[in-house]
Amino acid sequence: MRLISSGRHHATFEFGDLQVTSLRDGYIDMPPTRLRDEDGRTLDELPAAVPLAGDNLRLSVNAFFVTDGTRSVLIDTGASNAWHDPTMGLIYDALDEAGIDRAHITDVAITHKHGDHVSGLIAPDGSEAFGKLERVWIGEGDTSVFTGRLEPIRDRVVPVSEKAAINDWTTAIPAPGHTPGHTVYEVRSGTGRLLAWGDTVHVPTLQFGQPNVSWELDGNQSQARAMRATLLEQLTRPDHFVAGAHLDSPGIARVTPSGDGYALEYLAPPIG
């Protein structure tokens, strides 16, 4: 995978016969007390390697656009203005900066129902953000999110209950734990595989080295922990890459075994 362009809010990679663009929606600050040990208790102490912004953890919020030049899929959509947080909602600027016309996006794949992943389907002015949207893929356990603000999209929702092909090179794979419908998306090119996930990892400086650490908002912490272990082990295979919604922007990296955990090697320097 090779970086071919970047800016303040995007980074585009050549991935065999595909292009993968990381889109920076912004960041959100969360208290370290959201982290949990294997018994569900708040961590006593953070390792020195975990940086803080003030007293908080700073989580990047990323989405990913993948295209073969003809077909495309947008994985996650950011927060729009749903959280009323000026540090998020930048995905539309990121698409413009990357030269991607959102009016032509027909397929959106959502990792799970939380607002920083799905709210960008609706623009801040209340209109649909993707004018030619045909399908929204989301785990069956998370389809209840399509009410209220997201109600206009409901008729295009495709529930995912088992592995499902979105196109010739993208497969939706259920990965429950964080939410009942949490879903990862495997993208295959002629040179490797990319696994795009949502909230499998929240704090990359901690949870790769200590993958048993979980997050307070994991709906089922033991299931989320087991799923993270499974996915991390898969990612150590040759020519496998990860694209993470909360990895440091642009959030695309290799994973290798390291001690009792894993190490992360980003493919591009941080943006934002």
Provide structural commentary.
It is a single chain. This protein has 272 residues and is mostly beta strands. Helix content is 11%, strand content 34%. The protein has four helices and 17 strands. The chain has helices at residues 91-97, 115-118, 204-207, 221-235, and strands at residues 2-6, 10-15, 18-30, 35-36, 57-67, 72-75, 107-109, 135-139, 157-160, 164-165, 170-174, 183-189, 192-197, 214-215, 240-244, 252-258, 261-266. An eight-stranded mixed sheet has the order 1-2-3-5-6-7-8-9, covered by helices on one side. It has a seven-stranded mixed sheet with strand order 10-11-12-13-15-16-17. Strands 4-14 form a two-stranded antiparallel sheet. Strand 5 (57-67) and strand 6 (72-75) form a beta hairpin.
The total count of strands amounts to 17
Average pLDDT taken over every residue? 95
What's the order of the H and E elements?
EEEEEEHEHEEEEEEHEHEEE
Global geometry: globular
What is the percentage of strand-forming residues? 25-35%
What composes the largest sheet? 8 strands, mixed
InterPro entries: MBL_superfamily_lactonases, Metallo-B-lactamas, RibonucZ/Hydroxyglut_hydro
Family: Belongs to the metallo-beta-lactamase superfamily.
Domain Metallo-beta-lactamase: 60-246
Protein name: MBL fold metallo-hydrolase
